[in-house]
Amino acid sequence: MVGDDATAAAIDDGALFGLSKHDLLTLVNHILGFTELLLDDADTMSPPQVVRLQAIEVSGRRLNALLDSLYDPSTAQQKRRQLGLDGIRQQLRQPLNRIVDDCEGLIDEGDGQFAEDLRKVHGAARRFLDVVDQRAGAVAAAQLGGQAEIQPAAAAPRPARAGMVTALVVDDHPDNRSLLSRHLTKLGFTVHQAEDGRRAMTLIRSRPVDVVLLDVMMPEMDGFQVLAQIKANEGLRHIPVIMISALDEMEAVTRCIENGAADYLPKPFDPVLLKARVGACVDIKRLYDKDAYYRQQIEEYNLALEDRVREQVREISLAQQATIFALSKLAESRDPETGDHLERMREYCKVLARRMRDAPGRRGLVDGAFVECIYAASPLHDIGKVGVQDDILRKPGKLTPEEFEIMKTHASLGAETLRAVYHAHPANDFIRMGIEIAECHHEKWNGGGYPLGLAGEAIPLSARILALADVYDAMRSKRCYKDPMPHEQVRAVIIEQRGVHFDPDVVDAFLAAEKDFLDIAQRFA
Fold this sequence. Notes:
By secondary structure, the protein is mainly alpha-helical. The chain folds into three domains: about 5-135, no CATH class; about 165-300, 3-Layer(aba) Sandwich (Rossmann fold); about 335-525, Hypothetical protein af1432 (Orthogonal Bundle), CATH 1.10.3210. Helices cover about 65% and strands about 5% of the residues. It is built from 20 helices and five strands. It has a five-stranded parallel sheet with strand order 2-1-3-4-5, sandwiched between helices. Strand 1, helix 7 (about 175-185) and strand 2 (about 190-195) form a beta-alpha-beta unit. The longest helix has about 60 residues, at about 270-330.
């Protein structure tokens, strides 16, 4: 069983070793897919080759079954906790190591005919092993994505582990490289070599390196120049560099340390001193990698948490808007002839707002947030009708002047109701726009509207947009005292009222969006 809370949390997480099931199965698919292609040509192979290929297929299917069990919703949590991370690694390593060994044997024995596909199987298994051992998560992710070169700055390095430390030896003399490499290999390092500074920089940028042993005196690009490039790169500067030179002079040592080198070794070097100084540098690198890795994990967790909070806020907002829309529908339901009025209104307002957003004179005043807000707030325009008595609200004929004065109070009633909410939540733009719409959607551009008699730009833009949408919908809708008017006739009235009842810019937006209005009217007829 897993002991500590951090390990338990890692096991319970949806991903394994930083990758999702999809990413891991992509590697398994490469293993099985290319193996099956090779088995299709088994008649041209020797019996021992076929046996090894079949063993690779068996190991691949075993790996696939193990992944399925580790991600099965009904058993995954229990199985992961039962095995623990080390147990999971061990079970995954067994088939992966078999695949790697069998591939390498086939490549060594083969005549090159099947080498390309075998290398693809071998490469997928090796990448899977890297992921399992948490050696180079950034490398595995980039190779999965098909990137040709790994950028070290793209992700924090995985912490170096014992037996998996990589050293780069840079020296223009092959015997020097060979001597250092043999010593480091005995110490358990994986060693890469570079014969000059340019090749060294290419290798450092393309693969994880834990320590660089860098000769000072080299042609074209000397060790000081290579050191300067490493330390100038944000993604590489954490790699410790040990400078090596036959010049055992204090000036050279001081210059190396001042330029960022971790240590200095004179030639000929002492193997005991080499082991001690390289070991110290690797320990520092391990600490840096662990710190960077855990900081990245925390950052990723925080980002995921922010996304989750943002999604929950969005769901709450949608639920609130749906509730308000339902209450608006309830208020509208007192008028039996409104039909899908609210659905049409918010669609009309959204179309007009989008057109206004793109109008040269309105850029900056109308944005995406304004469009979303007016779509959500427009159903509140007649919320004040809940305060108008039924005999006036539901009267089938024309209202008397006295009755109309009572009907007009719905604008102020709605605004005051929403202001009570806004006082409690003064940062809510949705409620603020709802107040503007409820109070001012019967105002007219020329100042002849109600309840405040506002004119021109003094009328909130949201109310000016809704005013046109409301009149269009009223004229296009059937009432007990009138038949619906055709679009062309309503269009003529709106044009006639440009600059009188309606904001000229809103009328222009309507004329640019006529097709959308027709589609909405038909959709919610």
